Amino acid sequence: MGPKRAEVLAQELGIRSYYDLLYHFPFRYIDRSKIHKIADLRRLGENGGDMPYLQLKGQFAAFATHGEGARRRLNALFYDGTGSIDVVWFNKVKIIQESLHTGVEYIIFGKPTPYNSRYSMTHPEVDAYKPGMESQGLTGVYNITDKMRNRSFTSRTIKQLVQNLLATLRHVDDPLPPDIIAQYRFLPLHDALAAIHLPPTVQMLQRAQFRLKYDELFFLQLNLLRYSKSRSIKLGGLRFAHVGEHFNNFYHHVLPFPLTGAQKRVIKEIRADMGSGRQMNRLLQGDVGSGKTLVALMTMLLAIDNGYQACIMAPTEILAQQHYETISSLASKVGIKVALLTGSTSKKERETIHAGLLNGEIGITVGTHALIEDNVVFARLGMAVIDEQHRFGVEQRSKLWHKNTVPPHVLVMTATPIPRTLAMTVYGDLDVSVIDELPPGRKPVQTVLRYDNHRQQVYRFIYSQLKEGRQAYIVYPLIQESEKLDLRNLEEGYDIIRETFPDYRVCFIHGKMKPSEKEHQMQLFVEGKAQIMVATTVIEVGVNVPNATVMLIENAERFGLSQLHQLRGRVGRGADRSYCILMSHMKIAGTTRHRLEVMTQTTDGFVIAEEDMRLRGPGDMEGTQQSGIAFNLHIADIAKDGQIIQAARDDAMRIIDDDPTLTKPQNMKLARQLQFLYSRNQDWSRIS
Ligand code: ADP
Ligand code: MG
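The joint structure predicted for all components is written out below.
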């Protein structure tokens, strides 16, 4: 290929090497194994949906040009003995007309579109018919940009290039260990690459896809695991060997209820991890209300029993405040001093706290981002908990690491369940614990979808709940782009609610308020002085008011599934039956409607997360944006290839456990491949 065209390929598709070209896979395939009859087109079209691309075999008749200059077009009739269609060209009219002839058999390939009760095909691929052409099998279709099209690059051009390349490359070095290739009966890499571009059969295509997906996921896992392993070897970790009086006292005398089985199991996992002598980096997933705070507290008690301090960081002031209340009332009973450190802590208080941290007097610190500021220095920080971790960036998390010479154990908690396969990919170097059981006696929140025309009924229902002494949340969306408009909606909503419920006090809270005002409004609701809270999603995270039994979500169609799930989690926290009402003011359809229906059908956060991933794709999942890891996958699909991810991870783990630095002779190829694949990428080793 000449340098000019090579430049286009590099600029438009980033293809600069043989490797790039080989790994630029078709994005879909067309079946050219069959020749259709024109008489059958109508029946094909009746199946609904789009007409497929297909092949016809026949002859041209009656070429005719119309129009002038740029408007010039060429029409032809194409017939095959069962009927005829119209074929149209708008470009290169002259060249095409000269190259095509009547009385000669052609195969044309394209997408028929119905037009005036006939079919027509625009710019089909045309080949003079040669025997055997009927079964060209599957043909890959490659992405082409407009700019490439203007330089007369087509999908076919790419196919031709790959074909030439594959024919000259006699051997592609296979980086996978032979035992893995044998175990899965993989196609050799060369054959897999050939089959993904030029599949002879559907079966071969599938085998090629399997192999190449595995490759991609295997090296991704190998890379993640290698980093976490080398990190834990390099940095070591604190060994929390014993369970002491704080933990035991708490467990036997303070704990207000028996732990659920899942809580016990998770605490055991954490204990084993912290006792192993390497630094713990653990993700704790548990649905809203599953009791993660208690697990965090008991984990922190273990740190204190081993002579260290602990801290827990929350994303909002309100949440930090609530944690502080829960944790200080429980921890004080076993004689531990707890401090609260946030942006609104007064200067004087802060100085006292800083001193208490430095001399080790304060055992547990609850806080917001204020915790990771440089002037916060601990005597011996041994354990850091991060609540609602998806709200924090990577750098913020890594700052906690540096609060002690030997990095503290880290437990990150999330109530936004991430499907296992996604967690393995995004947080591949974290160990994962799951609380998959709610404390006993919880009744699932009853969820309904209502349209605007039912508004009065909905209000009457809320009224009946308030009359019984319950409280209600009413939530409005607030989305960045139209912030002003949203705020007006919110304020209007607030006015309407006050008019509708004149006997009750309504509080009002949104993200743009001053923290002190937010705090004040929140407190009104927590103490039961206000019965209705009109709010934006600032209440999404963590707030705990067991007496609230109604969650009304306005414009529910504007929220993502996991956000809806989080909001719903604010109710159903007490003994009373709770309700979530999703309001939508328009007749919604398609995936939007489906999304809301999912909410009415299940309260299982993991089911919702899987569905969310299916609907939005893994790149858009909440919890992944800030992970710092781009989804640079060519062929594997995190939503669909769960089993392959698991297998690839297990295999990678086995290799890394045996040879953490990949220096054994049999692993040299793997090390080289990783170097090749990831040398340009960022250093992931600091992501916790
Ligand atoms: P989340 O996992 O959403 O952070 P919390 O830790 O806030 O959940 O717990 C929700 C509620 O459940 C709290 O009021 C807490 O006291 C209560 N809780 C936690 N564990 C148990 C348990 N084992 N039995 C009964 N209630 C529990
Ligand atoms: Mg919580």
